[in-house]
Amino acid sequence: MQDLQDILDEAVHLKNVPGISMSLRSDTDHILLQSGYTSARTKRPVSSNDRFQVGSLTKMFVAAAILKLKDEGSVDLDQKVLDFVHLPNLHPTLTIRHLLTHRSGLKDYISMEHEGKALVSYGLQDYYLPPTLLIKTAADGSPNQEPGAPFNYSNTNFIILGMIIEEITGQSVSDVLDALFIHPLELENTSLPKQAIPLSTHGHSRLTDDLMEETSERKELSFYNPSIPWTAGAMVSTPDEINKWLYSLMNGELLEDESLKEMMSFSYTGDETEKYGLGLAQFEFYDGTNAVGHHGGIQGYESLALYFPNEHACLTILINQMPSGVGIIAKNIYKTLFSKKEAQS
Length: 345
What we know:
Layout: H1 2-13, E1 19-26, E2 30-36, E3 52-53, H2 58-71, H3 96-100, E4 113-114, E5 117-118, H4 131-140, H5 155-169, H6 173-182, E6 203-207, E7 214-221, H7 230-233, E8 236-237, H8 239-250, H9 257-263, E9 267-268, E10 274-276, E11 281-286, E12 289-298, E13 301-308, E14 313-319, H10 326-344
Antiparallel strand pairs: 1-2, 1-14, 3-8, 4-5, 6-7, 9-10, 10-11, 11-12, 12-13, 13-14
């Protein structure tokens, strides 16, 4: 346990990360550790219940919600997007599966501009932008989109999936996620906020507001506008609650077996170390080990949630700074924990 705490403390003291929180959950272990502060300004220590922005870990929840609706007979993955979302410039052959696998041909709205500013920069302002605007901006900027195109990670895909969930259910995505996962699993600190909410864990960023350049200055962020990342990345949670959800998913408690199998039907992305399924990635993690999960990065926060099939264990790390090197920290934790267990056995 001390070895793991030393890894977190090193990230805080030597890598200048403000705060970090981790959870590991397996059949035999349940470890919660933290280091550093919720705010570089106030120096309040991070606790296990402090909520972080989790960024694109949101995509796992949204993809699982779509598959849950499929299990209930409300949707087919090969249905056309235009059956649900009636917006101009979306290709008539675009399907839900194309969105889930990032093969829609649509550009990522995050880096595109609205009224002369990158859309992602509006996340730091109290300025609501509807999902239709985000999608239209991306669709207008993708005139030669071709569904079934090579893998191209695009947040636009999961904004459209959010609209599809609302069209099918007649409810907000926030309420759907609450009903499907959050309330049944008693995830008290997890939500998809409908509006900006105060977080006990402040974000810290060394990037410009458009996320394009790293600067020498570190800004502290106490506000984030969830309408910008929405169903592509606006959820808040704790490491232990992310792990509880991921562990339940991998144990077959949330989806039918066939849907979980589809979610984990991984194909190449162009990166030799990563494949992608339906809202889940498979990483060549360490020393030939494969892990399943997702990485997240949003202004002021970085996250990584992983399931290790061989060890039947989940590891989630949340950090209140972007960039922070969360992948290196995760590998050090894995090596320390599981290499030691192998040596003991």
